[in-house]
Amino acid sequence: MRATIKSDAMQSVCLALQLGLLLQLQASPVSSFLHHPLVRVKPATSRTVGFSSTAGAFSEEELETAFFSIDVKATGSIPRSSFADALADLGVELPKYQKNDLFDKYDADAGGSIDLDEFKSLMADPKMSGVKPSRNVKYAMDMFKKYDADGSGEIDRAEFREIAKEIQADARRRNLISVAAAAIGATIVADYSQEYQWAQKNFRSLYIEPKAEEAQNVAFPTALLSGDLDEAIAKTLSKRGFTPENTIFAHSACSDEVNNKDEQLVALMVNRWQEGFSLGGLAGLPFAGKSGFRAFLHHVPDSGKLLVMFAPHVGIDDRGVVGALQRDGQSKVSNACGAAVGAYKALMAKASSDKPAVKLGDDKDTDLFDPQLNTIVGLLEPRLEGIDNALDPISFVTYQMYAIVRDLVDDCIAQTPDVWDFANEVAVVGGIMINRRIGGDFFQPLSFETRVKDGSPGGNAIDLFEEAFGQKPDLANVLGSKEAASALYDRSGKRAKL
Fold first, then answer.
1. Fewer Cβ within 10 Å of end Cβ, the chain: N or C?
2. Higher pLDDT residue, 129 or 438?
3. Which residues pair with residue 306 across a beta bridge?
4. In the chain, what's the furthest Cα-to-Cα distance?
5. In 231-252, which positions are buried (b, 16+ CB within 10 angstroms) versus exposed (e)?
6. How far is it, in rounded angstroms, from Cα 467 to Cα 232?
7. Which residues of 360-374 are buried (b: 16+ CB within 10 A; e: fewer)?
């Protein structure tokens, strides 16, 4: 339950914390942030409690705030391609044809986008009577108003400097959460995750790393922020009766600490489903094995449901290098996933001594120092055919790691004969976790299905991918050929076996 904060001073503290967490400020001088562009948002001129749910009954301030909340890229207009998402963010659910009709009706100048004036007309339409935008938007507008000292409608460099000073540029996000918990109380922190996810998404343009963003859009073209993916999974499964009370969640993700941060996917899903069973080891392989899966299975509520999320991971650094990551507290770049990159380097060294090893960071992790890495090397070796045609070798390796983990998770389910004695449905979502230094981690979804009992060991599979995420990405360019892309999605061909 959201706590009600009556003190303006306390609201300012919370808002300052929000922006500090949002920017994920590192141990850097304040001056390093002064290159950020101006924030061009007209602030609300008076405080309001909330939004009316009656069409046409909005104040000017409420309309501007609502528009701000859906103008994610701060362009001053909502293009047709973003209109459906904008309506959903405002809490309006309409059939696709009605959304298109609304857009055409209120795009008065036929410019292909809805500007603020057109948006105000749109909000008077009876179909908009269900609008319920988040109150957090008003908080953000209040904070903007506080720091826009000259009332120009822009945050300039001097004003941004004051924000950075107040939230202490060298404080880490997790420390700020702890301070907030101690100073303000658990009731506020209990609702913080939702606010953080909203702020992270809406203010990304202020602090993203352009080269990393470009590399991600090319190599992982339909990747979603962790919070958006968590929400899409939950929304889809709720229609099938999955609840925290009847569902037990397991994850097979790499044991690397970057995958276990607050507000990122594993933590978000554990929080949503209220507990999590770890199946994964290095590179996300389910090294807990069939014994571990059986233990997980035996913990399911009576006649309940299983949910499994699996994913290898990969970093992208500020240079746009896939497979590299600058970790918290380190000045040097290291490999992510170190196990997958190390396995690839070892195989390249084995194949040709005159081929230079891929150098992404300063990790010296090519020695086969334990059984897990030996296993990864053995499973990856037969999957490297075609890598020379790929966009880059580490993206190719990461997609192959996804296929390896998928096959092993599939086998855990199919080769557990009593799975249907304990569970009546098993949902499995798979993809690639993408670690970013700032801006939040992403997830490239590649599979999402649920399985129900039909007499076969693996159950009857029902594909949920398109319902949750839309069309699967075309990976021909990334993997080097249509054949390589088809092979990735084809489960009937080459399969990983332990």
1. N
2. 438
3. 248, 426
4. 73
5. bbbbebbeeeebeeebbbbbbb
6. 9
7. bbebebbeeeeebbe
